[in-house]
Specification:
The protein starts with 6 loop residues before the first strand and ends in a 15-residue tail after the last helix. Strand 1, helix 1 and strand 2 form a beta-alpha-beta unit. The chain contains 11 helices and 14 strands. It has 343 residues and is an alpha/beta fold. The protein has a 7-stranded parallel beta sheet with strand order 3-2-1-4-5-7-11, with helices on both faces. A 3-stranded mixed beta sheet has the order 8-10-12.
């Protein structure tokens, strides 16, 4: 493993859940000379050796290639989860904006591109064994998030063919949480009026046990460490799965929360989510719920071996930290992450 001394790194989506952790770790790395964070709104928060630029990759006509000029690596994290009722809007930001970033990397002759893909890019897969990075990445077509992640995987296939001089790394993390992201993720998935203080074990004596609901999680800082390693490890290229053990299901969550799992049919759970989403009471769509039930479990052996990466926290520790953040309205001094306690 080797690192590029004095490198300059540009990070898109630098003020969100993943971006804040990636920017912080890169700014603390002596091998990184400077970090430029791109976001729609520049934040009050600014770690050492970091500069900010206000850029909206969905609508700005500014030449991204100029922003990338002289960079040794671009880490592309910018992503919009909402509005879930307007998939054309998220497509403009996530897919068309992503393509604009890739084209600017080539135009500015940036030698390294690290792209935030996701477990959501994977085609439906097993819940009783883990799959490696060769598993198909066609997503779940009915869910905009998965459809967009899968489309960018195909776009990167073409980009790598046409630009072999660029070292491309695709990160495929599980669900990412940290204490500071609690308010942001409550708004994204639960809605702005969902009271965070309700996330207390004593208020959840029963836990819905939905067939197929078995997923992986990871602390955002642990994922950010993998991104840092991808930037500084010259041999790293291709896709890397990122997740922590154990996989989370009703049994594991029941032990963590002291709650008793109660079997709930898929159809009943989906109907409730669909009704709330249709009434604009819940931002998370039933299509994303369908996708989550089908996501495969990921084998992270490649990241362990080739990046020397290991998560520092278990998935249960991650979830406990996140629930604590929900109760306390945790956040950061960036606009997407700003803490707002409801209830």
């Amino acid at each position: 493993m080797s690192s590029a001394a004095g490198s300059r790194v540009v990070v898109t989506g630098a003020t969100g859940n993943v971006g804040t952790s990636v920017v912080r770790l890169l700014s603390e790395d002596p091998a990184v000379r400077s970090v430029r964070g791109l976001a729609r709104r520049t934040p009050e928060w600014s770690p050492p050796r970091t500069e900010w630029s206000a850029v909206d990759i969905a609508s700005d006509q500014a030449n991204l290639a100029e922003r990338f000029e002289g960079a040794d690596a671009v880490v592309h994290l910018a992503w919009a989860f909402q509005p879930t009722h307007d998939p054309a809007a998220t497509w403009r930001t996530n897919v068309l904006g992503g393509i604009r970033v890739f084209e600017a990397v080539a135009a500015a002759r940036v030698p390294v591109l690290v792209h935030a893909s996701s477990v959501g890019a994977y085609s439906p897969g097993p819940k009783d064994r883990a799959v490696d990075e060769s598993w198909p990445t066609h997503g779940w077509p009915d869910a905009a998030y998965c459809r967009e992640k899968a489309y960018l995987e195909r776009t990167l296939d073409v980009f790598e063919r046409d630009h072999p001089e660029v070292r491309v790394v695709r990160m495929r993390p599980a669900f990412l949480f940290k204490w500071q992201s609690a308010s942001e993720q409550r708004r994204i998935f639960g809605g702005r009026f969902l009271p965070g203080p309700l996330a207390r074990p004593e208020l959840m004596p029963f836990l819905p046990d939905i067939p197929g609901l078995r997923v992986q999680a990871l602390h955002t800082d642990d994922a950010a460490e993998a991104y840092r390693l991808a930037v500084t490890t010259h041999s790293a290229r291709g896709a890397f799965n990122l997740a922590a053990d154990p996989p989370l299901d009703a049994g594991v969550l029941g032990e963590l929360l002291g709650s008793r799992p109660v079997r709930l049919p898929r159809a009943a759970a989906r109907s409730a989510i669909a009704a709330a989403w249709g009434l604009h009471l819940l931002p998370a769509s039933p299509h994303l719920f369908d996708a989550v039930l089908r996501l495969p479990l990921m084998d992270c052996g490649r990241a362990h071996t080739e990046l020397g990466w290991q998560p520092r926290r278990t998935a249960t520790e991650v979830l406990q930290e996140f629930l604590d953040g929900l109760q306390k309205g945790a956040g950061m001094e960036t606009e997407p992450m700003r803490g707002r306690k409801v209830g």
